[in-house]
Amino acid sequence: MANTPVGYSSVEESLASTAAVQTSSAGTVVANKAPVVGANRELATLGALTLDGKLNFAAVVPGTETTGSIVTTAATWLVHSALGSCALKFLTSYSGASGDYACARFRARSDAAGNVDSVNASASASINNHGNLCAVYAAGQPTTFTHNSAANIVCGLHSVIDATGASSGRRWSSWIDDHSETKAAGGHYLMRLSQNGTVAIDGVFTVYTARVPFLFNFEEAISGGFFAETGDAGGTKAGTIAIKTPVGTKYLQLFTA
């Protein structure tokens, strides 16, 4: 072990402020739930901490706190003031020639009828006139590096359903929802698609339809909505929307109201 915090005889003692610690022959730090008598200091008093092994919480008995049962700041907000700062940061790389690697993997399992989220993220505010809020920012960043394989894929978000069992319910690879009780004056939509690069790209959507019978499924037709079951769209043609298909470019006719 290295970098023993001030006021402790060892890193093991410092970690014991919140959990009993055992060190295996492989250097793994195993954190257990049982407290150490007389060790009531919290990790918040330690400052920077360096471990030569890994933290293994496999023996932890989770608490019942809704503020976090294993790793938590409880109900306390840790305030940052440095520009570009963050609470957690991991810089990792992968040197394998094949296979899949992830900097972080979260697996949440349903053992009963309750709903389960693997990651529940939010960006909130405590003041008026707050900054832009984005709960999840995902970026695929090859930067200046090139690739000579046409099979290579770069994406900011890959959302997948893996299922082999039958279901009487519904499945969506992505669900975008809005729970607002007020409407933003500058514009309020379920989704915004933008292209801010310096080159023209091929289009907005590309759809692989090998086993997809319909492009859209409108769940309801409502008065005043964008989809109406009956009625004329208008008598004057007013342009088209180009749609690229395997058999050439097609056009969706637009009409004036």
Query: SS-based structural class?
Result: little secondary structure
Over the alpha carbons, how many angstroms does the gyration radius reach? Answer: 26 Å
Strand order in the largest sheet: 1-2-3
Tell me the major beta sheet.
3 strands, mixed
Order of helices and strands: HEEEEE
Tell me the strand percentage band. 5-15%
Helix content: under 10%
Unreliable parts: 16-41
| Number of distinct beta strands | 5
Question: Separation of termini?
Answer: 73 Å
Global shape? extended
Summarize model confidence as the mean pLDDT.
81
- Count of helix runs: 1
Describe this structure in words.
It contains one helix and five strands, in the order αβββββ. It has one helix spanning 11-15; strands spanning 20-23, 29-32, 55-56, 237-245, 248-255. The strands form two sheets. Strands 1-2-3 form a three-stranded mixed beta sheet. Strand 1 (20-23) and strand 2 (29-32) form a beta hairpin. The radius of gyration is 26 Å and the shape is extended. It starts with 10 loop residues before the first helix and ends with a strand. The relative contact order is 0.05.
Which keywords apply here?
little secondary structure; 257 residues; 2% helix; single chain; three-stranded mixed beta sheet
How would you summarize this macromolecular structure in one to three sentences?
The protein contains 1 helix and 5 strands. With 257 residues, it is mostly loops.
